[in-house]
Every structure is written in structure tokens, then in C-alpha cells.
């Protein structure tokens, strides 16, 4: 019995990984940019539609719809990564490729790993996901802020109307008030 050293495979980053990873990150951000522009366009069109009579229900419905659109955009981005992984035979089927892509895109991670010659993409998909989520957060924060400002404005108007109705008009000749003299 000989005492041989353990065999280590040496990983070297390949140009294929860098090129394909860069293409996939760029494609992810292009899809995201397109999706966020459409999210804002749809949101603004719906706001204009309901502008004459803004309500809480209309505003929250628009926010929910935009959240669904943003979620769909993220799903589309993940599906692109999963399709690439399937194309490159990284997983036995598309379901596993999609599962892996979702887990790494969201930075949760999974029990699966890419083959050694593609493992740099594990970090690149997480980077794409982080950038996408940051962008989505900015869009959703802007829309939520607009909704909150609109609702606070409506509440202020209602409070002012209530106060105006509940405050009796002051009589010009009430005791304690100065008489009005023409000048």
C-alpha cells in the first residue's frame, strides 16, 4: 500500500465562462430594463385612467399589478439562465436547471452545482440577481412612495372638509369679537 497524495483537479477560469457569463448578465439587465420601463408605462397609464377619481383600491391594485409584472420579469430572466444551463448540458433536465437558476439568482443557493467548467457562472447569476432586485426595489419604492403621497393627500383633504363642516361660522357680532367698521 502506497501513500499517494490526493488527486486535485485544478480549476482554471475559461474565456468561455467569462464571455457567456458577461452575455448572460447583459441579457438579464436588458430584459430587466425593458421590463421596468413597461412596468412604469403600465403603472402610469393606469394612474392616468383613475386620476379623476383616485381611490385606495385603485392605487393598491396598481401596486399589486406592478409587483406581479416585476415578478414576471425576474422569472423571465431566470428562465434565460436555465435555458443556457440546459443548452450546455449542466443538468439532466430543464426542471433542475430552472431550480438551480432560481436558487442562485436569488442568492439562496442550492444543493446542485454547475459543472466545474461553468462554475464561475454561479457567482455571475447571483450578481445579475442582486442587480435586478436592486433595480426592482427602486422602481417599486418609487411607485409605493407616489401611492402613499396620494393617499396622504386624500386623507388631508377629507380631514379639512370634516373640520370645515364641524366648525360653525363665526358671527360678526358675537360677544368678544370686534365690530366691523366700514372704512
Write up this protein.
With 183 residues, the chain is mainly α. It has one domain (15-154): Helix Hairpins. The chain has helices at residues 15-50, 56-87, 94-105, 120-166. It is rod-shaped, with a radius of gyration of 29 Å.
Q: Report the total helices.
A: 4
Query: What would the principal axes of the Cα set say about the shape?
Result: rod-shaped
**What's the Cα radius of gyration?**
29 Å
Report the top-level CATH class.
Mainly Alpha
User: What is the structural class?
Assistant: mainly alpha
The proportion of residues forming helix, as a percent range, comes to 55-70%
From the coordinates shown, what is the CATH architecture?
Orthogonal Bundle
Largest sheet: none
Termini gap = 121 Å
- Reported by name, the CATH topology is Helix Hairpins
The topology string of helices and strands comes to HHHH
Binned strand content: under 5%
Total count of domains: 1
Q: Unreliable runs, pLDDT <50, ≥5 residues?
A: none
Please give the number of β-strands.
0
How much is the average pLDDT? 88
Amino acid at each position: 500500500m502506497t501513500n499517494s497524495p490526493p488527486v486535485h483537479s485544478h480549476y482554471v477560469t475559461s474565456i468561455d465562462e467569462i464571455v457567456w457569463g458577461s452575455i448572460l448578465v447583459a441579457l438579464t439587465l436588458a430584459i430587466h430594463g425593458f421590463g421596468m420601463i413597461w412596468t412604469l408605462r403600465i403603472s402610469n397609464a393606469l394612474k392616468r385612467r383613475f386620476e379623476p377619481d383616485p381611490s385606495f383600491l385603485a392605487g393598491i391594485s396598481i401596486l399589486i399589478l406592478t409587483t406581479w409584472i416585476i415578478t414576471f420579469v425576474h422569472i423571465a430572466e431566470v428562465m434565460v439562465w436555465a435555458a443556457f444551463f440546459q443548452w450546455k448540458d449542466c443538468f439532466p433536465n430543464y426542471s433542475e436547471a430552472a431550480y438551480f437558476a432560481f436558487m442562485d439568482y436569488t442568492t439562496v443557493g442550492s444543493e446542485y452545482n454547475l459543472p466545474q467548467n461553468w462554475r464561475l457562472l454561479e457567482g455571475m447569476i447571483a450578481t445579475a440577481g442582486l442587480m435586478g432586485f436592486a433595480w426592482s426595489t427602486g422602481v417599486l419604492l418609487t411607485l409605493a412612495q407616489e401611492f402613499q403621497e396620494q393617499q396622504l393627500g386624500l386623507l388631508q383633504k377629507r380631514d379639512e372638509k370634516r373640520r370645515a363642516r364641524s366648525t360653525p361660522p363665526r358671527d360678526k357680532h358675537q360677544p368678544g369679537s370686534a365690530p366691523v367698521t366700514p372704512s
